[in-house]
C-alpha cells in the first residue's frame, strides 16, 4: 500500500463513529444516543455492554436489535435496516438512524405505600383503617420494544420516576383487593407476610407485563394499625403480662410505701396522707401475716371461702328542677349543703325513682328533715 493509501486509511479510521453508553446513573431505563441529524457513518463501532440492549430505529420503525457485544455497523450487521433501505451492496455514505440503549438490569428497592388508610372489616376488631408499605424490583422484559411503545415513547431519556406512580397504583389496587378477600386478621398478617408477598407478586405480574416490564421481587414489609388501636393493643398486652391482678396490686402498695418512706414530707393533704398511711399499714400487716404464716397461705385454697357481707345500701339520688331545667342527681348530703347555701329549699321541685311526678322537697319526709337544722332568715331591721 502506498503512502497516500496509508494516510487515507488512517484518516478514515479516526473518523469512524464510536457509539456506546456509559451509564453513570442508578435509575435511567432508556437513553438515546445523541447524534447531529442522527447521521451514522458506514463502519461505525457499536459497543453494547452487559445489562444493555441497543435498538436501531429507522424513520419511526424498529430495525435491528443488538445484544451485549461489539459490532461494526455495515450491511452485514444490519440485516433489517439494509432490507428497509434496500441496500443490496456495500455503501460508504452516512445514514440517518436513531440508536436507543435500553437498560436491562434490575431496578432495586423501589418503594410503595398507601397514601391514605385502607378501610377494611377485620374479623376480630371489626371495621378498621390500615396502612401498608414495602418494596419491589423490576426490569425491562426480553422484548424491549414493548416497553418503548407502551411507556417511554420517543423520550431521549426515561427514568424509573416516570413510571413509579403508575406501578404504585397497580400495587395499591391489588393489595387492597387481596387483603380484603384473604380475611386474614390484622394480628395474623405478620405471620403471613411471605405468603402474602408471593401471592401479590403473581397477581401483579400480568399488569407489569402489559407495560413491557417483569416484576422480579415484591415485598410487603409492614401492615400497621391506627395509633388509637395500637394504644388499645398495648394496654391489652400489658394486662396479659401483669397476670394476677391481686399480686400486682400488692406490689404497687408495697412500692408506694417505699416511695412514701423516702419522701416523708409527702406534699399531699393531711387527710389524703392519713388515708394512704392507713391503707399502707393495713396492707403491710396483711403481707407480714402471710409471711409469718406460710402454711395458712398454702392451705387457704382448700378452706371454705368466708361469707361476703351484703352490699352497702346506697342513698337515694334526687333530681332538682332549676329554672325549668333538670339537674342532678344529688344525694341527701349534697342537698343539705345546697340548702345551707340557699340553693335548695322546701319549695324546690324534686323527683327520684319510684315517684309518679315532681313534688316539693318539703312534702317528702326524708328531705323535710334537712330543713330542720337550717335557721330561719333574720327578721327585717326596723328603721329607727
Keywords, please?
single chain, alpha+beta, 5-stranded antiparallel β-sheet, 4-stranded antiparallel β-sheet
Helices, strands, pairings?
Layout: H1 3-14, E1 18-19, E2 28-32, E3 39-40, E4 44-48, E5 52-58, E6 61-66, E7 69-73, H2 79-85, E8 95-96, E9 98-103, E10 107-113, E11 118-122, E12 126-140, H3 144-152, E13 157-159, H4 161-182, H5 193-210, E14 213-224, H6 227-242, H7 245-262, H8 270-292, H9 294-299, E15 318-322, E16 325-330, H10 332-340, E17 349-351, E18 359-360, H11 365-368
Parallel strand pairs: 1-4
Antiparallel strand pairs: 2-9, 2-13, 3-8, 4-7, 5-6, 5-9, 10-12, 11-12, 12-14, 15-16, 15-17, 17-18
Q: How does this model look, in words?
A:
By secondary structure, the protein is an alpha+beta fold. The protein is built from eleven helices and 18 strands.
Q: What is the count of β-strands?
A: 18
Q: Give helix and strand order, one letter per element, not per position.
A: HEEEEEEEHEEEEEHEHHEHHHHEEHEEH
**Radius of gyration over C-alpha positions, nearest whole angstrom:** 44 Å
Residue-averaged pLDDT: 79
Ranges with pLDDT <50 over ≥5 residues? 11-15
Largest sheet: 5 strands, antiparallel
- Proportion of helical residues: 25-40%
Strand order of the largest sheet: 6-5-9-2-13
| Quaternary class | single chain
Distance between the termini: 152 Å
Share in β-strands: 25-35%
**Rough outline:** elongated
Q: Decide which structural class fits the backbone.
A: alpha+beta
Number of helices: 11
Amino acid at each position: 500500500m502506498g503512502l497516500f493509501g496509508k494516510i487515507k486509511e488512517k484518516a478514515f479510521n479516526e473518523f469512524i463513529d464510536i457509539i456506546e453508553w456509559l451509564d453513570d446513573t442508578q435509575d435511567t431505563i432508556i437513553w438515546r444516543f445523541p447524534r447531529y441529524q442522527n447521521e451514522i457513518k458506514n463502519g461505525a463501532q457499536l459497543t453494547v455492554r452487559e445489562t444493555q440492549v441497543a435498538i436501531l430505529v429507522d424513520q419511526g420503525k424498529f430495525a435491528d436489535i443488538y445484544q451485549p457485544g461489539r459490532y461494526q455497523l455495515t450491511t452485514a450487521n444490519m440485516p433489517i435496516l439494509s432490507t428497509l433501505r434496500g441496500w443490496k451492496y456495500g455503501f460508504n455514505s452516512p445514514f440517518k438512524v436513531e440508536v436507543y440503549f435500553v437498560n436491562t438490569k434490575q431496578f432495586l428497592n423501589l418503594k410503595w405505600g398507601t397514601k391514605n388508610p385502607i378501610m377494611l372489616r377485620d374479623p376480630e376488631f371489626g371495621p378498621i383503617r390500615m396502612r401498608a408499605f414495602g418494596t419491589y424490583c423490576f426490569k425491562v422484559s426480553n422484548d424491549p420494544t414493548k416497553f418503548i411503545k407502551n411507556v417511554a415513547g420517543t423520550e431521549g431519556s426515561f427514568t424509573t420516576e416516570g413510571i413509579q406512580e403508575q406501578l404504585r397504583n397497580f400495587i395499591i389496587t391489588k393489595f387492597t383487593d387481596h387483603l380484603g378477600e384473604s380475611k386474614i386478621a390484622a394480628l395474623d398478617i405478620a405471620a403471613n407476610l411471605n405468603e402474602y408477598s408471593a401471592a401479590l407478586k403473581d397477581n401483579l405480574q400480568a399488569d407489569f407485563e402489559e407495560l413491557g416490564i417483569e416484576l422480579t421481587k415484591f415485598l410487603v414489609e409492614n401492615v400497621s394499625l391506627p395509633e388509637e388501636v395500637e394504644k388499645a393493643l398495648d394496654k391489652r398486652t400489658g394486662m396479659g403480662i401483669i397476670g394476677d391482678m391481686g399480686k400486682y396490686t400488692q406490689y404497687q402498695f408495697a412500692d408506694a410505701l417505699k416511695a412514701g418512706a423516702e419522701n416523708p414530707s409527702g406534699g399531699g393533704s393531711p387527710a389524703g396522707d392519713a388515708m394512704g398511711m392507713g391503707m399502707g399499714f393495713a396492707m403491710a400487716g396483711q403481707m407480714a401475716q402471710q409471711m409469718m404464716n406460710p402454711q395458712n397461705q398454702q392451705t387457704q385454697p382448700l378452706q371454705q371461702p368466708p361469707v361476703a357481707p351484703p352490699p352497702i345500701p346506697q342513698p337515694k339520688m334526687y333530681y332538682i328542677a332549676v329554672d325549668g331545667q333538670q339537674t342532678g342527681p344529688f344525694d341527701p348530703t349534697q342537698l343539705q349543703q345546697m340548702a345551707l347555701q340557699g340553693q335548695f329549699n322546701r319549695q324546690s321541685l324534686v323527683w327520684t325513682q319510684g315517684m309518679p311526678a315532681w313534688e316539693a322537697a318539703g312534702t317528702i319526709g326524708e328531705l323535710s328533715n334537712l330543713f330542720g337544722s337550717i335557721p330561719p332568715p333574720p327578721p327585717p331591721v326596723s328603721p329607727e
